User: Which sequence fits this backbone?
């Protein structure tokens, strides 16, 4: 009888085996980056292990996921476990913040936000996998200033929403013109965003280093965004480069 | 011996007042306004005051919150405007019916929080800068920001906490605003549109033309409204004994609607931010199994009413797949703004734009005495004018014709 277990077939391996080849120093470095975030002390005060967060967590019902385990691991500074969770657990979180009812005042969801940010900034492969297929959304929000647009309502993107998506796609331009608010006649953006506003948004992306994070997670997306933004900034009189 | 605890379900059933008393002095959280105004005194930022006229409402720990009735700058929602545009159209329609001054700006970006909670491809500095840029744009028009999206509302409250408590962050954002030629400003209150609807509920009820007293509605309170920075969500001793937020429920009761209670009211809708876009199996399953089916079994409502972009989308759109699998689904989903507008006689297609919704809502309209065929024919007539080139857009006047 073969008793060998394929560790990669287990959704969440808490033994540390899966990432044993990653140097401890690298895991420690990432944890220190989480701790260094100025919001860290606003989201973690310790843990009673009461499980209120898990009881109210939607992701815990459908995934091998526990906000309590995450709060515990970070409280105990269990570097090995934190690394595992940062790869194989945090992207299951729904970010609903139901766990904010914690009697200690913890926000496991807020802690996960910070851990995700560190995962993205460091280009972890698991973060890239979690965001696979998500690039078009990042492109839309960063380049237009609105997150979802009417022209995203296409049958191939939302097959599980049924026939009415076909109907919307077929009538899109006409139905958008049948909206009384003047800002809503758009198809490629949620509402009309002025050129001045878009330029200000691009300058914010530039000054806050957000494009560096995009480069870590998706080089191709970075290059497309860079082209679009630099050209519009240049037209507006700004000599800005995102690839410094 | 301590005071006997009464389960909230018993309070709801008995309709009795619990003798609950607010004790704002014992609130476990700081009063953000104290810090905001102190920072203003120190020259760190400028506070955008709530303009008059306003209504004072009570929040979770008994503090008062000012809700402006007009002179508002409408901070629109990505998902509402993009995929369920009758949601925001109804908010504007209500303002116009009362003759209130407001601005629907194009100098507004998304709060970008949907993307942030989904992908984390941003950082605290960028998030605060995006928020303050929008608030500065509102201030430049002399209006006060009214936030349409529940996630923008919750996220901006998180942003407020970060800005008030982290000096370095304030300095960095002030530098960014200077580069943009803007001031570091922040509103006295973060106000969600559903709070405006709640504050206006009696005035809306005075102008109600559709009887809704035979309607049963189940309410889904949006997570990012009452869980994410909980202290300035509206609570009312007359609604659930102030043990749950009064938002939406208070509005529906004022319109005479019966509330259909269900046990999983605290659960989220399943939106999940990243999940609704790239892991929708989770969103569908959660919305159907933990929300819609539970409502159907325990309350069998005519409608689900909620007050956030993602909640309307997820609860409505997920029912298609649920139906295919023989689940107990089939409840239309609308926002409180749409229900309030409908109660005041708004057109179901020209204003509420129900053709963008998924789950069948015609039986609901028929139960209200509205003929959906007749209303759709009126809408198609308006569309013909657009098709023929007689008109380029449907106007507000057309919507009320």
Assistant:
């Amino acid at each position: 009888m073969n008793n060998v277990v394929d560790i990669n077939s287990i959704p969440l391996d808490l033994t540390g085996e899966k990432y044993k080849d990653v140097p401890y120093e690298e895991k420690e470095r990432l944890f220190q980056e989480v701790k260094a975030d100025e919001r860290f002390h606003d989201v973690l005060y310790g843990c009673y292990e009461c499980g209120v967060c898990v009881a109210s967590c939607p992701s815990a019902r459908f995934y091998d996921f526990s906000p309590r385990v995450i709060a515990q691991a970070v409280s105990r500074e269990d570097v090995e476990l934190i690394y595992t969770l940062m790869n194989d657990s945090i992207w299951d979180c729904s970010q609903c913040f139901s766990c904010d009812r914690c009697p200690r005042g913890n926000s496991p969801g807020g802690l996960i936000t910070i851990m995700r940010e560190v995962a993205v900034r460091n280009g972890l492969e698991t973060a890239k996998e979690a965001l696979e297929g998500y690039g078009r959304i990042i492109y839309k929000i960063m380049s237009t200033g609105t997150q979802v647009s009417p022209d995203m309502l296409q049958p191939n993107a939302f097959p599980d929403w049924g026939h009415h998506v076909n109907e919307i796609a077929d009538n899109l331009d006409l139905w958008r013109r049948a909206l009384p608010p003047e800002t809503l006649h758009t198809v490629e953006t949620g509402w009309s965003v002025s050129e001045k506003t878009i330029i200000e948004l691009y300058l914010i992306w530039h000054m806050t280093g957000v494009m560096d994070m995009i480069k870590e997670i998706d080089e191709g997306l970075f290059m497309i965004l860079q082209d679009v933004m630099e050209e519009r900034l240049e037209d507006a009189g700004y000599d800005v480069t995102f690839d410094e | 011996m301590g005071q006997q605890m009464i389960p909230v379900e018993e309070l709801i059933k008995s309709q009795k007042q619990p003798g609950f008393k607010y004790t704002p002095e014992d609130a476990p959280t700081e009063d953000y306004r104290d810090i905001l105004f102190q920072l203003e005194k120190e020259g760190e930022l400028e506070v955008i005051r709530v303009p008059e006229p306003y209504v004072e409402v009570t929040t979770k720990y008994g503090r008062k919150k000012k809700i402006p009735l007009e002179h508002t700058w409408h901070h629109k929602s990505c998902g509402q405007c993009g995929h369920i545009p009758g949601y925001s159209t109804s908010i504007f329609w209500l303002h116009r019916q009362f003759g209130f001054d407001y601005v629907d700006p194009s100098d507004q970006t998304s709060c970008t929080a949907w993307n942030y909670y989904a992908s984390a491809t941003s950082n605290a500095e960028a998030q605060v800068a995006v928020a303050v840029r929008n608030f500065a744009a509102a201030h430049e028009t002399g209006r006060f920001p009214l936030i349409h999206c529940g996630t923008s509302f919750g996220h901006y409250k998180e942003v407020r906490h970060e800005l008030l408590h982290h000096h370095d962050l304030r300095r960095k954002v002030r530098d960014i605003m200077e580069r943009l030629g803007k001031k570091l400003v922040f509103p006295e209150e973060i106000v969600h549109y559903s709070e405006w609807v709640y504050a206006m509920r009696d005035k809306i009820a005075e102008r109600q033309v559709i009887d809704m007293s035979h309607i049963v509605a189940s309410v889904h309170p949006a997570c990012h409204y009452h869980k994410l920075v909980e202290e300035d969500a509206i609570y009312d001793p007359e609604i659930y004994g102030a043990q749950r937020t009064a938002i939406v429920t208070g509005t529906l009761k004022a319109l005479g609607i019966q509330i259909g209670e269900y046990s999983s009211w605290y659960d989220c809708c399943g939106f999940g931010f990243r999940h609704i876009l790239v892991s929708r199996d989770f969103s569908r399953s959660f919305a159907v199994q933990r929300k819609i089916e539970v409502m159907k079994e325990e309350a069998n409502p005519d409608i689900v009413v909620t007050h956030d972009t993602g909640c309307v989308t997820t609860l409505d759109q997920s029912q298609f797949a649920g139906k295919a699998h023989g689940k107990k689904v089939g409840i239309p989903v609308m926002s409180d703004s749409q229900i309030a507008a409908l109660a005041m006689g708004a057109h179901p297609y020209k204003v509420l734009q129900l053709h963008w919704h998924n789950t069948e809502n015609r039986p609901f309209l028929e139960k209200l005495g509205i003929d959906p065929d007749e209303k759709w024919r009126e809408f198609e007539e308006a569309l013909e004018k657009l098709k023929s080139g007689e008109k380029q857009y449907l106007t507000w006047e057309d919507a009320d014709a």
